[in-house]
Amino acid sequence: MSPRTRRQKAAVASQSEESNRSPIRNGTAEKPSKKNASSSGQEVKENIFLFAPNLIGYSRIFLAIASLYYMPLHPRTCSILYSVSCLLDALDGYAARYFNQSTTFGAVLDMVTDRCTTACLLVFLSSAWPRWAIIFQSLISLDMASHYMHMYATLSMGGSSQSHKKVDRSRNWFLYQYYTSKTVLFICCALNEVFFIGLYLLSFSSPTLSPSLLQPAQGEPASVQPGNPAHPAPNSLFASPWSAGALEMARANKIDSTLPWIITGISAPVMAFKQFINVVQLVNASKWLAQGDRANRKKQ
Q1: How many Å apart are CA 241 and CA 124, to the nearest integer?
Q2: How many C-beta atoms lie closer than 10 Å to residue 33's C-beta?
Q3: pLDDT for the residue 209
Q4: Range with the lowest mean pLDDT among 5-9, 65-69, 219-223?
Q5: Is 10 buried (19+), middle (13-18) or exposed (0-12) by CB count in 10 A?
Q6: How far apart are CA 203 and CA 281, in angstroms?
Q7: Does residue 235 sit within a domain?
Q8: What is the average pLDDT across 165-171?
Q9: What is the rounded distance in angstroms from the CA atom of residue 144 to the CA atom of residue 285?
């Protein structure tokens, strides 16, 4: 056999071997087995609970609980922990976009954390100023109701995959601007919390809002009225250190009221606008749900 014939036979054999290895046979691609498909499906399974933005959300909850522990007697520590928890609200959104880990669970966790922490702070303010408790109770109710109805209307009318922050311009101009602009949303949420933190600090420092914080004038005898922190021996009036009167006396005059008055005054207009947005959100969600009810009744 000539060298040329041997080379031709070797080339034919090589081509035949490659065709046998190829996944395409008779013009049809070979389909992967079910075993391989199932194993590849297990590989791409993700743990939503360990996504970066959700881990940040858990840290927010931890900081919020810690701030509640220090809230009755330690205004500086409480304010720092509470503020850091609120600031992380912006970081988890950034992490969700950066790592492409936006999830429905994360969005709900973020909203629930916001609502609960604000409600807890308002509950404390209700106990600090019982005369104005109805105002703080109304703010809690408005905040909870407006956000719940807005999210429910979005999921039921817009679809389960629809985000509550995605608001169409035709629905309401104020809501569109509020949820579309990240700057507007951040400023409103941040200063709303700053206002309530300012009120919280004033409950420790302002005799104008809390007359029981007044100290007796020099040379005057200290009052023995229960709840007056000027009494020299609080244990004689309040046996339990956890009683309301003992807490009032322990927190009296611990900080200066200048800075709390400044931050409360600056943030008050934004807080008022945030409550206006809550009202608009509540009304708009109610109308949207009623629109869906009318459409369903027509179909029936």
Answers
A1: 17
A2: 9
A3: 80
A4: 219-223
A5: exposed
A6: 31
A7: no
A8: 77
A9: 13
Cβ(59)–Cβ(112) under 8 Å? Answer: no
The answer to the question of residue 84 being in a domain is yes
Residue 256 a catalytic site member:
no
User: Which pair of structure tokens corresponds to residue 282?
Assistant: 């509540």
What is the C-alpha R_g of the chain? 31
The backbone torsions φ and ψ at residue 29, rounded to the nearest 5 degrees and listed phi first, read -75, 140
Q: Name which of 22-31, 59-68, 282-291 the model is least confident about.
A: 22-31
Q: What is the 3-state secondary structure (H, E, C) of the chain?
A: CCHHHHHHHHHHHHHHHHHHHCCEECCEECCCCHHHHHHHHHHCCCCHHHCHHHHHHHHHHHHHHHHHHHCCCCHHHHHHHHHHHHHHHHHHHHHHHHCCCCCHHHHHHHHHHHHHHHHHHHHHHHHHCHHHHHHHHHHHHHHHHHHHHHHHHHHHHHCCCCCCCCCCCCCCHHHHHHHHCHHHHHHHHHHHHHHHHHHHHHCCCCCCCCHHHCCCCCCCCCCCCCCCCCCCCHHHCCCCCCCHHHHHHHHCCCCCCHHHHHHHHHHHHHHHHHHHHHHHHHHHHHHHHHHHHHHHHHHC
Let me know: does 61 contact 113? Beta carbons within 8 Å.
yes
Cα distance between residue 81 and residue 176, in whole Å: 32
Range of the domain at 105: 48-156+171-207+251-299
Determine the residue type at 177.
Q
- Residue 76 sits in a domain whose CATH number is 1.20.120.1760
Catalytic residue among 89, 92, 110, 114: 114
Q: Which residue carries 């302002």 as its tokens?
A: 206
Instruction: Look at the chain and count its residues.
Output: 300
Is residue 227 domain-resident? no
Q: Which are the contacts of 282, defined by CB distance < 8 A and separation ≥ 6? A: 142, 145, 146, 149, 150
Domain count, the chain: 1
